[in-house]
Amino acid sequence: MNDLSNYRKSYEKSELLEDNIPEDPINLFNRWFHEVEEFGASGEVNAMTVSTIGLDGFPKSRVVLLKKFSEEGFIFYTNYDSEKGKAIAANPHVCLSFFWQEMERQVIIKGIAEKTSENISDGYFDSRPDGSKLGAIVSKQSEVIPSRTFLEENLKKLEKEFEGKPIPRPENWGGFLVTPLEVEFWQGRPNRLHDRIRYQSQSDFSWKIERLSS
């Protein structure tokens, strides 16, 4: 057995106090996102974990890239026929989480996912490199395939088929908008007395703000 009990770290880089936060969690998320970006994060700042409840009843998490956020919510793109796409169609309650190790911060978002409009999905698809567009067409995401060669050969066929031609967005590929119902901000602090501030959406479109014990 690998004993990890001595893996410890003291979190001392920042603080999260009620007298320095906005009334809207999207504004705080925007501040944190750009602070992490300016700090020089080594990875992709927009990498997030998307957790869903699968058709088998088990939760499943995977890392995807956030592509847009606004007061409306958080947008990512995927194959609608993938495991997560089918899971969201059956149960749109999802959780998004960001962990920015460099600044000892975490954000957890509970929300409702729905497909973006075709115009939004088309616009983002058109902005992608041709290789990524063809990859979205050739990949039957989450399905069992015989080999890596199977994917590569199918990609070569598509490259010839669409050479010099516009590449259309597949109908089963597009965006999900996650409308946040609850957003929790976690800032690491010394002695495991971490700062945790939770925003909960209210019926009058305001946000209830509470501090949680670490």
UniProtKB/TrEMBL annotation:
Key words, A-Z: Flavoprotein, FMN, Oxidoreductase, Pyridoxine biosynthesis
What is the free-text note on the cofactor?
Answer: Binds 1 FMN per subunit.
Q: What is this protein called?
A: Pyridoxine/pyridoxamine 5'-phosphate oxidase
Identify which cofactors the protein needs according to its UniProt entry: FMN
The record's annotation in Gene3D superfamilies points to:
Electron Transport, Fmn-binding Protein, Chain A
State which pathway it belongs to.
Answer: Cofactor metabolism; pyridoxal 5'-phosphate salvage; pyridoxal 5'-phosphate from pyridoxine 5'-phosphate: step 1/1; Cofactor metabolism; pyridoxal 5'-phosphate salvage; pyridoxal 5'-phosphate from pyridoxamine 5'-phosphate: step 1/1
Q: Which HAMAP family match?
A: PdxH (MF_01629)
User: Which family does the UniProt entry place this protein in?
Assistant: Belongs to the pyridoxamine 5'-phosphate oxidase family.
